[in-house]
Amino acid sequence: MSIDQAASDEKLARWLQEGSSEAFDEIMSRYKGRLYAFICRYVADRDEAYDLLQESFITIYQKIHLYDPNRKFSTWAFQVALNKCRDWGRKKTLTRILPFSAFDKTDGQTDFIENIADQGGTPEQILIGRSELEVLAKAVAKLSDKLKTPLIMCVLEDMSQEDCAGILGVSQKTVETRIYRARKKLTEITSSGTVHSP
What we know:
The protein has two domains: 9-92, Rna Polymerase Sigma Factor, Chain: A, CATH 1.10.1740; 110-191, Arc Repressor Mutant, subunit A. It is mostly helical. The chain contains nine helices and no strands. The chain is elongated and about 60 Å long.
């Protein structure tokens, strides 16, 4: 079948459920960059991230029958990727999600440190210069999974709190609270001067 490139993600997912390989190709084209960037910021390893991206798309293809067309496809796709990251983390006893700054700009991705530092009025503004921002990145690595996950999604990925809530399976208020707690924790860590490499 001929794929309308203006079709919604949800319509593509329905076509994929009907067996359209062209719909899957279009989904991959739309999501490979976003999901790869998202996974990279969790595992801090481009090769591992690429493998997890491939696994994510395999799961999307194999489990598409589980997708509810009444939900946003992006929410489901990010849930798949997040689950892959968590599985990888458990297997590797993952203790860090950095260095974010290792990612260059050639692939069109915004550097985490510059992104988070641009959030006006945040505790991160006390850090001036690249080396100090590296301290901030290490502080983020010290956050619990519950706190750093919504922080990455909403601050780095510029995802809405509503969409983040859908992916994590929690209320929007919970996401808001966790981001607030993450920023408060960052203040405590950076102001104490006890940040060390994880």
